[in-house]
Design goal:
Largest sheet: none
Number of helices: 3
Shape: rod-shaped
Low-confidence stretches: 1-13
Mean pLDDT: 81
Order of helices and strands: HHH
Oligomer: single chain
Helix content: 55-70%
Number of strands: 0
Length: 118
């Protein structure tokens, strides 16, 4: 585990080494991950998708002959990119929802596993 709390791939794979440590997942960790997915990853996907509208090539951008050959393919690629990034945005929304459920369930498990003395 590095100084930022990231777990190395070797420790995740179960490989022994001097730097391997136990991995402890908490509801706070899940909450932090959900927050980063919502606030960083989703914003990045939305931003990149918004750039697609800025890459339109007006005539005669490819030239007369180039426009006849390339314009349709180029516009098709832009539509395909928009659709793919739209799907990516939906996937990120799904991850956020799943992480919220996981966080809530994990928090419930944490609360129920606390030892209470009478």
């Amino acid at each position: 585990m590095d100084r930022n709390g990231a777990v190395s791939a070797s420790s995740l794979a179960g490989q022994s080494g001097s730097s391997s440590q136990d991995i402890h997942v908490t509801s706070a960790t899940i909450s932090h991950t959900r927050s980063r997915v919502e606030n960083e990853l989703k914003e990045a996907v939305v931003f990149v998708r918004s750039l697609i509208g800025t890459v339109h090539v007006d005539s005669p951008g490819f030239g007369i002959l180039g426009g006849m050959i390339m314009n349709g393919a180029y516009e098709g690629m832009c539509r395909q990119g928009d659709a793919l990034l739209g799907d990516a945005e939906k996937a990120v929304d799904g991850w956020c929802q799943a992480l919220a459920v996981a966080e809530r369930n994990w928090r419930t498990a944490e609360d129920r596993s606390i030892v209470r003395y009478r």
